[in-house]
Amino acid sequence: MLYFAYGSNLHHSQMRRRCKDSKFLKKINLKDFRLTFRSKYRAADIEPKKNSIVPGGLFEISKSDEKKLDVYEDYPSLYKKYYFFYYGKKVMTYTMVKKTSFKFPTERYLNVVTKGYKDCKLDKKYLKKALMLSW
Question: Can you give the pLDDT at residue 85?
């Protein structure tokens, strides 16, 4: 199955540790969404926003990888699954159940996400923009 990562799962070595079968395919953009950070975990989330994009990594994952991600993402309590189509193929990602207000991520978490942006060769301006929503 196809999985879209936009937060800490962009980090290739972390993703390989968590999901043994995962393969990074390429970077893609999720249209009409924006990146934000929220909840007591100060974790990444996406929310609908017209004319905005969330850059991320498209991964091929197995059924057992999906089960591991479900545990990591605290599905279905913290995150629920969201599906979209990319060139006719169904792609799964996670989005938070409760849309609480913006919470600046911890330095440790932000470092993992930043490394993931490097791993996937994503434009960091979207990450910076999401962090500026806090001001």
Answer: 97
